[in-house]
Amino acid sequence: MDSFELNKILGALLFSCLCLLALNIGAEAMFHPVKPAKPGMEVVVKEHAAGGEQAKAEPDEPIEKLLASASIDKGANAAKKCAACHTFGKGEPNRVGPNLYGVIGRPKGTEGGFDYSPGMKGKGGNWTVADLNTFLTNPKAFVPGTKMSFAGVPRGSERADVIAFLNSKSDSPAPLPKAADAGAPPKAAEAPAGQKK
After folding, report:
1. Do 88 and 107 contact (CB within 8 A), yes or no?
2. CB neighbours (10 Å) of residue 85?
3. CA-to-CA distance for 157 and 151, rounded, in angstroms?
4. Burial, 183: exposed, middle or buried (Cβ in 10 Å; 0-12, 13-18, 19+)?
5. Residues 6 or more apart whose Cβ sits within 8 Å of residue 178
6. In sequence order, which residues have a C-beta less than 8 Å from that of residue 139 and are 6 or more positions away?
7. E-state strands within 39-179
8. CB 160 within 8 Å of CB 70
């Protein structure tokens, strides 16, 4: 091979490298990515009004007062979110959670055929309206280690509706307070005759 052939080969190789370099520079100028000043994404969080924080801080009314005006129909509608894991009819099977028929008055952690968490099994006692209210507010706080992943029902009136609905799902529903009873102020103790109040 003579020097002329070698020069042609080296020239073609050099020309190819120059073409690739020119294409790279042109593509970089045309498709130059804009790099952010700060790496990462900014997450926008809605700010709550100051009144919303005050509303959360205010304690709920007593469950007895809320139950006096509770609606079983509203409770049935609110309990639809519970129906993904629970059944409510007599003899219906357990799902991810136990069947809730006759839950008020039933011993905690005893529904047949359901594997309760150790925390629920060890809770003891029967389900009362007050216990259900506390559990529905924050299940994980009431029963640490519970399998229930539900965050809770923050509104007291909605909890009262759900409890009224659950109470209706029983062979013998427990008596709930009437609206007249809940609004009546407690009677003051009268002093015996001859003593000053």
Report:
1. no
2. 16
3. 17
4. exposed
5. 68
6. 146, 148, 150, 152
7. none
8. yes
Identity at 73, one-letter amino acid code: D
How far is 192 from 197, CA to CA, in rounded Å?
9
Q: In the numeric block, which tokens belong to residue 46?
A: 């809605």
Q: What tens-digit pLDDT sequence spans the chain (197 residues)?
A: 788 889 999 999 999 999 999 999 988 888 877 777 777 666 666 655 555 444 454 456 888 888 888 899 999 999 998 888 999 999 999 998 899 999 999 999 888 888 898 988 888 899 998 899 999 999 999 988 888 888 888 898 899 999 999 999 998 888 876 654 555 444 444 444 444 44
Structure tokens at 177: 């307070």
Q: Which of 62, 78, 59, 60 is nearest to 164 (CA)?
A: 78
Residues 6+ apart with CB under 8 A from 44: none
Q: By C-alpha distance, which of 155, 114, 120, 28 is closest to 163?
A: 155
d(CA 152, CA 160) in angstroms, rounded, equals 13
| pLDDT value of position 99 | 92
